[in-house]
Amino acid sequence: MAAGRAFLRAAPSSLAAGAGRFAFACPTALPLTAAAAAATGPHRRGRGRCYCSASDAPPPPPYVLTTPLYYVNAPPHMGSAYTTIAADAIARFQRLLDKRVVFITGTDEHGEKIATSAEACGRNPKDHCDTISNSYKMLWADLDIEYDKFIRTTDRKHEAVVNDFYSRVLDSGDIYRADYEGLYCVSCEEYKDEKELGENKCCPVHLKPCVPRKEDNYFFALSKYQHQLEDLLTKNPNFVRPSHRLNEVQGWVKSGLRDFSISRASVEWGIPVPNDTKQTIYVWFDALLGYISALLDDGEKASLQQAVERGWPASLHLIGKDILRFHAVYWPAMLMSAGISVPDAVFGHGFLTKDGMKMGKSLGNTLEPKDLVNRFGVDSVRYFFLREVEFGNDGDYSEERFINIVNAHLANTIGNLLNRTLGLLKKNCKSTLAFDSIAAADGISLKDNVENLVDKAKDQFENLLLSSACETLMEIGNLGNLYIDEQAPWSCFKQGGESAEKAAKDLVIILETMRIIAIALSPITPSLSLRIYTQLGFTEDQFRTLRWEDTKWGGLKAGQVMMEPKPVFARIETETDEKDQSSSKATKGGKKKARSQGLVEA
């Protein structure tokens, strides 16, 4: 049992809980039908696909991916934005593999901390939740997040699922009533074991003193699932990722599991306990069910069984490491008790710091994601955090490094290569391709190198090595830059004859390389990839229907007309750059700085 003294009134029965897997009931098409899109908001672009066949064979299960349901005590911050950007990149990659993705995000809106935050703002809890939840939706739009489902724990369908789930666990004999006394962290909304507290009995996470509290609560018999959880972690080591997080979870379980409180008598803002309306359901026994209730369509009859049949179990829960215990210990045990399959995997990523220091309002060094987007653009923000933070570990933000990385990779390696190549094509070929990309690359090693790196990036994406995938795709860009510098097509065009013909082929080879980069990089920088793809003469509709298989060499055809060359990514100028440019203009009669998205050697 959790820290403190518990005096049992009714012991839980020893009834074993099954862990069966429910059958998947297939809808006729992707969740993103016109009706679903209208019901859930303008968060997805493109077209839905039907995955049903004329045969009786069941369709493949969906790839269900979730972020945490974010707590609405305060507006979103860079930590929640990072998790959601990463989830969006994974979802986009899975869609490129032609998977039927259900990407779930949302907000956790019940509990004492929410009521307290609302009161501090002079609002009632519902109005407060509406405001903060909407701020998440607005930020996700700013960050190019294309989720499929946004669940709020104040939704009626969610409450129906929670009530069904509670009843199932109660029927399993795993809920009992007890008096509880212990040290409580209001910020965590959790009783703490005294031995894990710091000086002055402070919570190790929030660094605030825990307060003594005594309550009459309902408890979940977590200890009953000790051996089943040990078996789960032993037989399925990929259940918790990365591997060092698995070691953490195994340590918690082996140290002995204690039953935990699943209700609060002192909190009014929450879902009432079905068999005792004087108490409300504890936030985690409520919020975790959002991953299941989100699978329901708005307006349909809500039940736990119906929600499960919509596509459970989840393929991946993506969370911060601070809530790993709830997702990797509490949640699977709760599901076992209700006879529902556990998720396939839980991935706990690290924390973000700024200039090597933990971020906090008291330190004045918080990082506001919307401010970053407004200053540097969404592609810069998405790319930096996915490239620079090794997924699963802690990562640091430095503005100097942010600008250097983004300028070097997106402006120079990618943007400048495309712009200079299109400039040469316009000047020498009237922006028209003279050869198919397959014919142009005959006998050229660059083609084989690109194909090998694309395969490598795919494997990295599949294994959630997002930073490594970014590195691999930049390696393709570096090869393209090296190739064009070595072949010097600008000189070959001047020579005419066979040299000019070779130069025309070289431009096709580079542009085909750029086409492949645009597709493979689209999970990371979707807006930049779209700009690249449309510059290559394709439409936005064509971009929206791309699949990973389209990274195969050979997409560009002879006679295809490219768009007018325009910079696809604006270099971030610093105060030093501006001073250098002013000095350069003064000494060189106002000539532009070389090779910054210009038409170099064109």
Task: Summarize the entry for a quick read.
With 602 residues, this protein is of the alpha/beta class. It contains 22 helices and 17 strands. Strands 4-3-2-13-14-8 form a six-stranded parallel β-sheet, sandwiched between helices. Strands 1, 5, 6, 7 and 9 form a five-stranded antiparallel β-sheet that branches.
Arithmetic mean pLDDT: 87
Q: Alpha-carbon distance between the termini?
A: 73 Å
Shape: elongated
Low-pLDDT stretches are: 1-42, 589-602
CATH fold node name of the largest domain: Rossmann fold
Strand line-up in the sheet with most strands:
4-3-2-13-14-8
The total domain count is 3
Helix coverage percent: 40-55%
Structural class: alpha/beta
**How many helical elements?**
22
**CATH class categorisation of the largest domain:** Alpha Beta
Please compute the radius of gyration using only Cα atoms. Answer: 27 Å
What does the largest sheet look like?
6 strands, parallel
The assigned CATH architecture of the largest domain is 3-Layer(aba) Sandwich
Strand content: 5-15%
